[in-house]
Amino acid sequence: MEMVPNNNVSHIPHVFDRSGLAAISDFDSLEWKETFDTLESDQLIFLAKENEFRSPEYKWPRDPLHTWSRAWEYPYVWHHLRRERALWPSHLRPNVVDLGSGVTFFPFSAAGMGCDVTCIDIDPVAQQDIARAASCIQKSSGAVDFRLRTELALPFENMEVDVVYCISVLEHIANPEMTIKEVARILKPGGLFLLTIDLDL
Q: Which of 33, 96, 160, 164 could form a disulfide linkage to 156, CB 3.0–4.6 angstroms apart?
């Protein structure tokens, strides 16, 4: 049987529709540039309010979007979150967990597309800063809240969550296997787990 080439551009894979390492050429793609520009705008809005919520003892970068691996990781996760959100009716909001959130613009960006985001972290400073940020960042179609992780178990019931994303965190956790088991426990059947890790080869 003769194979006929399919010239339908809708079958061209999106630059984010694969797993594995990002290539330098990926940063030249229109998909990455458009997504990065959107997130850069979101981060600027977040940082404009920083003096209202940022604790001086917070030790992580205040501008994570421009750090070496997150320039790819945030757009990658945002693309898949947006795709998942599009599957939901507009009046329903997915229950999303930011695992190892720190204090960044990203959960607020996800809330802006209509997700309810719960940030999880072991840092009490992140707990207070996220709460303050949630009260001063412009309200969107979704909500952002925080739960402190004080033990190995994640603070959710079985099958409570629609999406979990974990950006550059799992590789820094002492017991990653237990964390993966916990993610599986809290996700609903068919739930989405978005994982990135910052391996420098």
A: 160
